[in-house]
Predict the 3D structure of the following.
Amino acid sequence: MALSIKFNSPVILTFALICSVVFFLNKFVLGELMPFFMINPSLNWGNPFSIITLFTHIIGHANLEHLMGNLTFILLLGPIIEEKYGSTKLLTMIFITAFVTGLVNILFFHTGLMGASGIVFMLILLVSFTNVRSGEIPVTFILVGILFIGKELLQSVEVNQIAESAHIIGGVCGSFFGFKRA
C-alpha cells in the first residue's frame, strides 16, 4: 500500500503558510513588514493600508512562540472545521472574525493588535459544535465556554501583552457560527 501526502485542508494550510512566510520575511527585512500585519492603537480611516489591517492583523505575530502557539491550535482544529463546513465557509468565518475582532479593538480598547488568537478561539468554540443535532446545545460547548471565558476574564486583570478581548471576541464569533451552523 503506497501512501501519498494530501493537501487536506487548503484554507488552514495556506493560512499557516502565509503566517509563517510573513513572520520569517519580516525577520529578513528587520521588522519593516509587520506594520502591514498589525493594528495600531489609532486607525487612520483615510489610509487604505490602515483599514486593510482590520483583516491582516491575524497574519502578524510578535515572536516565534506566539506564531507556533497559534499555528499549533489552528492546524489541530482547523481541518476539522474545514471538513465540516467547507473551505469557503471557513474562509468567510476567518474574515468575519478578523474584522469583528479588529473593529471592536479599535472602537473600545485603542491598543495594538496582532496575531491569530481570535481565530484560534473561534475554532476552539466552533469545534465543540461538530456533532450537534438541531435543538441541542452540547455540554462540551458549555464547559469549554465556561473554562475559556473564565480564564480570559481572570487573565484580563493581569498586566501583559495579551489581548484577552480578541480571544473572547473570537470565541463569541465561533459560538455564533456554531449556533448558526455556519
User: Anything to note?
Assistant: The mean pLDDT is 89. Residues 87-109 form the longest helix (23 residues). The helical segments are 10-28, 48-56, 64-85, 87-109, 117-127, 139-156, 164-180. DSSP finds seven helices and no strands in the chain.
